[in-house]
Every structure is written in structure tokens, then in C-alpha cells.
């Protein structure tokens, strides 16, 4: 808490309000306040009349997760039902301030975290506020698996997904339920090239939304790309799409498709669970040699 705000609160008569700064994953930053006038803090205009409010914050000094919720009304000028349904606020970063509305520079940050589960009902919404300790509830570390544990394009993988030949920028042609995209052709890309990849909408009402590719098939009618989940906003013919090549996490794919085997993060020669239950067999002599080499005389 700033010294000026401490002195202001100690005076007994205070002019304080709450400010909310919400940053979505698409980098759009919105500001809200429960004061009756707009206030600007850190270059963000916090608008009044948004209907956003928060219940009492419950915070602790240990590793327990902060617990609170935000409640607000849906409006075309602030948080819309379409944006909530599209998932644009999922995991959005939130900062809450206690400020002197006469001098917004006198303020204290009382919460920092993210939006959790969002519930819409009767023209309003309610969302969990998850504190900075929330990630401590998630398991961390790496598992020893035959497949690669990296995510294509991340810092451990190191592959540039914008490399020519691995990214297709094309306009949508036929869209079914926001999940199945059909094209007359995708020249230069083999069938199944984008399977397990990502489709991102670059234009139109769904700009910025993405989903993972379930299948990529060449049919008699053309190229058919199906997603695991529907894009949660309307995608119209002509909207620009970006489709990224997919990876099935296998060593051969990493070496042959992406030429990135030096960054492969799996253990392809790790024995499977069936090896633990193996027993001697006459047609499979135990030679005492390496598990990675076939027995002598066998292919």
C-alpha cells in the first residue's frame, strides 16, 4: 500500500473505489471500475457503469490458493456474451486495485491472478478469480516416455512453425459447425500433413481463436480438415485461416518430417510395459546382449 493511500485511509473519511484490469490472451486490455466516473491507471481507461463487482477477497500468506469471484453484467460495450462463449476470457489475467478516486495514483494492488470457470446466466456472468498460487496445484516435471514430451514450436522443441512448407495460409471455403473445414485443394501439402496440428482463425468474427486438428484427409470432394473441438465463434467463407503442420511425437516423424531430431525430447528405445512381464521362450533365445539389438540370427 502506498504511503499516500495509507494516510488517506487513516483520515477516517475516504474516497476509495475498486479498479479491475483484465488482459485477455489475445493481448486486449480492458479496464473496469465500481466508481461512477471513468478513471485512467497505468495507461488503461477503467470504465464506470460496467456492472463488474467482486466478492470479498480471501487471501493468505502461505501457499493456499486465493479464493474470490467476479460478478458482472453482459453488455455490448464491455464484456459480451459472444466473447465469453468464444472463450476469449478463459485464463485472462486480472489485477484488482483499491484506489483513491480523487487521486488514482494513490492505490494498492489487492489481487493478481486469472479468471477461472465462467458461468453465464440471465444476461450476467460469474467467474472464479484464481490467485498466483493456483499453478502450484498442478503437477510439474517431465515423464520418461517413448514419445516426445515437448510441444511443437515451444522452447524445448525449437522448431519454427512459420517455416515455409509447414504453415498454410488459406481462406475458408466450406465450414460445418465450426469444426469441419473443406477445401477444393491445398496444393503443396501431402494428405495428413496437418493432422495433430493447429488451425488458427486470422480474420472475421472468430479472429484469434484456434483449435487442434483431429484429421486431415484427401477425399473425392477435396481436402477435409476436422478439428477436435469446434471454433466457438462464427467462421464464414472467406475468413483467413492459418493451418500449422502436426506432429505425432514419434522419433521418425521428428527426424524425417521436421529434421529436428537433435531436439527430440523422448526416449524411443525405452522398453515398454510388456517387457516387464517377458519370460523365456524357445524361439527367442536370451543372448545376454543389448536390449536394443536383435538376437543373433534373427531379423
TrEMBL record:
It holds the Pfam family Phage_phiJL001_Gp84_N. Residues 192-274 form the Bacteriophage phiJL001 Gp84 C-terminal domain. It comes from the Bacteria. InterPro entries: Phage_phiJL001_Gp84, Phage_phiJL001_Gp84_C. It comes from Pseudogemmobacter humi. This is Bacteriophage phiJL001 Gp84 C-terminal domain-containing protein.
